[in-house]
Amino acid sequence: MPDIFDGSKQSRQSPPVKKTAPAKAQESRRIESETTLPVAQRYVDDYSEVMRQSAPSESLFDAFAPKPKNTSFDSQLDNEFVVLLLRKHPITQIKYVLITIGLLLMPILFSYVKLFAFLPARYQAAALMLWLLLVIGFVLESFLSWFFNCSIITDERVIDVDFESLIYKNISAAKLDNVEDITAVTGGAIRSMFDFGTIKIQTAAATTEFEFEDAPHPAKVTTLLNELLLEEEREKLEGRVN
Amino acid sequence: MNSNFGQILGTQTVDQSMTAFFDGALKIIFVLLAGLYLAFAFVVIRQISVMKKTLLTPFSPVIVMIGYFHFLLALMVFFLFLIL
């Protein structure tokens, strides 16, 4: 008779991150998961080879951030653990860097062709100030768009966070139980060279398809999702459903 | 000679009027542009507020500070254009 999950037992906490060799950290977490955690909840390293091989992400700007530290989202449940945070591969931001460089060089070009020579000197300075302000705004907006547009995979759900413009926000979430199909598409020389691509997830939820665009290591993400789905199936069979 | 003097005076007066008009129009245009950018900077602050509530990271306070700094910069430029 499978154990029925008892909510009065100690809830899962964020696994402690110890600065030890990876094998020791995993072993200590495994022992902790076996002795202190309820049967219903297993730490992700216990069933995921991808996570066992990935150290918790310490950088704030990782595009592929396994087990990110001190990172959560607003609809996260108490017993939900962020397994992976994905953003677009940094190489996709090169075009914004080039545009910024071009915008910064444009005043020099304008001064050579004396485009604004008809303006009084103080207005030329004002125009330059306004131009630099616009460039700063462009850089800030590009960074915010990259940093906060992300995909989150937890041990219960997949969440897609999209801020498409200044005033448009779209957050889609689907339980792993509803995931039906996972496809990773990597096309082109640049994507193959830098190992990033689009991951498409078909679900039975309200949002029928999730797309994680230009995500790094699509093969790893696909493998991780399959491992999470297997664990969900195991939980159902063993009666460990949350 | 009096008529020439009168003509010269008249031309200078017209020139000064045109220059003053041009200056005034330029000032209004620059103040309007700075005002629009100030509104954009305010919207960016609101956007950051919504974003950091959606995804909570240790970097969020830094982004909030950058947003406010950007807004202050836009405000300074706006007032500078007003007194230009």
Describe the structure.
The complex is a heterodimer of chains A (242) and B (84). With 242 residues, chain A is of the alpha+beta class. Chain A has seven helices and nine strands. In chain A, the strands form two sheets. A five-stranded antiparallel β-sheet of chain A has the order 1-3-4-5-6. Chain A has a three-stranded antiparallel β-sheet with strand order 7-8-9. In chain A, helix 4 runs antiparallel to helix 5. The model of chain A is unreliable at 1-38 (pLDDT under 50). Chain B contains two helices and one strand; from the N terminus they run αβα. The two termini of chain B are 40 Å apart. With 84 residues, chain B is mostly helical. The interface between A and B is medium-sized, with 34 and 31 residues. Strand 2 of chain A pairs antiparallel with strand 1 (55-56) of chain B.
